[in-house]
Amino acid sequence: MSALSDKGVPADEVLAQLRAMRGGDLPTHGGRLFAYVYDPGLEGLDELAAAAHAMSAHVNGLDPTAFPSLLAMENDLVGAAAQVLGGDGRTVGSVTGGGTESLILAVKAARDGRPDIAAPRLVMPVTAHAALAKAASYLRVALDTVPVDPVTLRVDPAAVAAAITPDTVLVACSAPSYAHGLIDPVEPIAAAAAAAGVRCHVDACFGGWTLPYLRRLGEPIPPFDLSVPGVTSISVDLHKYAYAPKGVSVLLHRDEELRAAQYFGYADWPGYTMVNPVISSTRSGGPIAAAWATLRHIGDDGYLALAGRTRYATAAIAEAVSKVQGLDVVPRESTVVAFMSSSVDLFVLADELAARGWHTQPQFRHGEIPASVHLTVTAAVAPRVGEFEADLASAVAAAREHGPVQLPPGILDLLGAAPVEQLAGALGLGAGGALPERMAPVNALLNAAPPAVREKLLVAFLSLLQRPSPRP
User: Fold this and answer.
1) 302: burial class by Cβ within 10 Å (0-12, 13-18, 19+)?
2) I need a labelling partner for 362 at 20 to 30 A (CA). Which of 55, 59, 215, 326 fits?
3) For residue 410, what pLDDT band results from cuts at 50, 70 and 90?
4) Is the distance from CB of 404 to CB of 448 less than 8 angstroms?
5) Which domain, by its residues, includes 457?
6) Is the pLDDT assigned to residue 87 strictly greater than 90?
7) Coiled-coil regions in this chain (predicted)?
């Protein structure tokens, strides 16, 4: 089907076609998808956000003087984030289109804030989000990753300090790390960065909106935000645990001087002078208005209640996993339940859970760090805990009966050498990159591949997917 029809299609038919396409997607509501989406389970919130989005969808963030409503909403969102994340009267920030954009801008501000350094470098634990590596790649900043203990999955602050060089422009850490939900030791890392005269960014895109509320509920959340000396910037995604529609993130800087290098300005052409605080120039006001309406509607007390339900669900899911012999739960510090196993094929288990309506995120081994399964737990999971526990036991039994994946003979020899189409055929991937019913063989192959080969395979496969169908 082409989006450009030969003749106009009636609105009701267009919406019916859209609903049909959406029918093949994973469920975004109902507490059965443990990645990608964040569901508070609040009645009426979708309708409110959609109405706010529609009201400002055609407002353009390119020029805040033309649309002061958008400027006001952005300032309100930055102020709310500063309130939650230890900011003060000096704190400034920007609303971005997502966590990756926030991280790219944090790296840009650090790089451009040190024009005296010709070959800038970024230091971060190997567990830091891949978006920081993307930022380094885009901005030509060299990346120095610090290993973590393969058992505790924690980074040694002394190792981070030792990795700082005269060319380091930024040290980054996570609150929490996405893969395993563990909070980096922000205080000593920020202190080491400050002692070296280097900025320190805390990637709290994932947990920044829920960790402060969990602390208020009694969870032992260590200091991680702008209240920590040495932390110069922090990012938080409002489309995660603030439960706003995608995509809205906030990047905060301790003060205006630190933010200044984030901006782009260009006047050396005959058109309007371009001045942008973020990567995009034209920006729809829809997501920003939807986020503003979501925060206003839920309120501080509502977020505390949602954090309480998420806290219960996370603890209950972790307990359910820990009851299963052969599944080893990573210590829980946030709203992530991650687990490993030496006796159950986790990729087969993920398929068995998917067959029962539970969609998890398998994660591949990295060096000495074993493969794992990641569960992002939201408030909507709370009513489903009993169902999950029963289905998990059934899925584990089925995975044991199925046994581990046996890759086709010789396929490992093809890694990095054979065309991706040949590998796709050997794994049962259909024409045009269609996915097989069971993903365990694909995941097992990717798990066996070195990271560089894995990247090459997935880039090639994504390229297969992203091709328009020929017109009939």
Assistant:
1) middle
2) 215
3) confident
4) no
5) 411-465
6) yes
7) none
